[in-house]
Design goal:
With 156 residues, this protein is an all-alpha fold. It is 62% helix and 0% strand. The chain has one domain: Up-down Bundle (de novo design (two linked rop proteins)), CATH 1.20.1440. The chain has 5 helices and no strands. The relative contact order is 0.13. The model has no long low-confidence stretch (mean pLDDT 87).
Length: 156
């Protein structure tokens, strides 16, 4: 897998562009007191969208890929929640908020479409190991009573 493979994936490109936009247009508007809270949360959640799409894409198995797309979608919703807050407290303008919200809706549609494609195509479903499942058997826990619990008479 190489970066050229990701660059052919429209959903990843749009997610990357969304994070860059957050970085360039929103973060500079935040006040100094938000540097270690909202600034960092917005930076991480927006970058997480494309990062999770990339990680899923590199798994070569549709169920893993779908799972990481669900995580990416959650990161998008987290980012949009911070954008709503930034607008409501006056850190960003209404125009910027509406533009980012629209981009977020479009990105959400792309992620959902990509998830649908992955589920339908089932890429990697016949790959080596795809039919194996991992399961743990439950074992009994053995509890040894080596220490006597304190009673009211021996507590000082």
């Amino acid at each position: 897998m190489s970066i050229s493979g990701l660059e052919k994936l429209d959903v990843w490109c749009k997610a990357r562009d969304f994070a860059v936009r957050i970085n360039k247009e929103v973060l500079p508007l935040l006040p100094v007191e938000e540097k270690w809270s909202l600034d960092q949360q917005l930076r991480r959640s927006s970058q997480s969208i494309s990062a999770n799409i990339a990680e899923g894409h590199g798994r070569f198995y549709f169920q893993d890929n779908v799972r990481f797309c669900y995580i990416a979608r959650g990161s998008l919703e987290e980012t949009l929640s911070y954008i709503v807050y930034a607008n409501q407290v006056g850190y960003i303008s209404e125009a910027l908020y509406k533009s980012l919200a629209l981009d977020g809706e479009n990105l959400n549609r792309l992620i959902n479409g990509y998830i649908g494609f992955l589920k339908k195509s089932k890429q990697g479903a016949n790959g080596p190991g795809a039919n194996y499942t991992i399961r743990e058997t439950l074992s009994d826990y053995i509890v040894e009573d080596n220490l006597a619990l304190p009673t009211d008479s021996n507590i000082e």
